[in-house]
């Protein structure tokens, strides 16, 4: 039995894929955390409102505004991330979004008033919406050719 040249090339490619699969899995797992942010931040506010509402003296209507401000930011972030990605690339965009998310989380944690809290929630939404757009395509692009999504391989 002889192995054809294309068979050897395929085995070599598979070996390269196996060697890089740990790094690719790690990068994909970290990038996929961006998708978890959306669910976590929209869910955690329910419990946080028990403490936030009395602290800031929020009416029921203002509580609704605090909750929905993240969603408003997510809409703007998902729409606005496209041109940013085209200009600076997916990886750099994800790094910038991580910094924006960190800033929003810190502002939320140390918000002295309702205005800062609302601004922080909008910032968090921008980062989450942008990540929702960028993360799936970034993961598809870093996948090796035998496993990548059809049409996204380099």
Structure commentary:
The chain has 154 residues and is mainly alpha-helical. Helices cover 84% and strands 0% of the residues. Helix 1 packs antiparallel against helix 2, helix 2 (60-88) packs antiparallel against helix 3 (90-109) and helix 3 (90-109) packs antiparallel against helix 4 (114-142). It is elongated and about 55 Å long. The two termini are 33 Å apart. The model is unreliable at 1-15 (pLDDT under 50). Keywords: Membrane, Transmembrane, Transmembrane helix, Transport. Belongs to the major facilitator superfamily. Sugar transporter (TC 2.A.1.1) family. GO terms for molecular function: transmembrane transporter activity.
Secondary-structure-based class equals mainly alpha
Biggest sheet features: none
* Beta-strand residue percentage: under 5%
Low-confidence stretches: 1-15
Specify the helix fraction band: over 70%
Order of helices and strands: HHHH
Briefly note the CATH topology name.
Answer: Growth Hormone, Chain: A
CATH homologous superfamily - what is it?
MFS general substrate transporter like domains
Please state the oligomeric state of the protein chains shown. single chain
How many domains, as an integer? 1
What is the mean predicted local confidence, pLDDT? Answer: 81
Indicate the topology:
Layout: H1 5-56, H2 60-88, H3 90-109, H4 114-142
Keywords, separated by commas or semicolons:
single chain; 154 residues; mainly alpha; Growth Hormone, Chain: A
In short:
The chain is an all-alpha fold and 154 residues long. It has helices spanning 5-56, 60-88, 90-109, 114-142.
């Amino acid at each position: 039995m002889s192995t054809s040249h294309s068979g050897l090339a395929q085995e070599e490619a598979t070996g390269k894929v196996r060697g890089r699969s740990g790094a690719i899995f790690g990068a994909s797992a970290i990038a996929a955390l961006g998708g978890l942010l959306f669910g976590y931040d929209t869910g955690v506010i329910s419990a946080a409102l028990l403490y936030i509402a009395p602290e800031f003296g929020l009416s029921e209507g203002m509580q609704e505004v605090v909750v929905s401000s993240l969603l408003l930011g997510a809409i703007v972030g998902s729409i606005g991330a496209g041109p940013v990605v085209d200009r600076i690339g997916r990886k750099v965009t994800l790094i910038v979004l991580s910094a924006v998310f960190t800033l929003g989380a810190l502002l939320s944690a140390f918000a002295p008033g309702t205005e800062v809290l609302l601004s922080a929630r909008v910032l968090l939404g921008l980062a989450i919406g942008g990540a929702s757009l960028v993360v799936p395509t970034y993961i598809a692009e870093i996948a090796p050719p035998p496993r990548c999504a059809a049409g996204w391989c380099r």
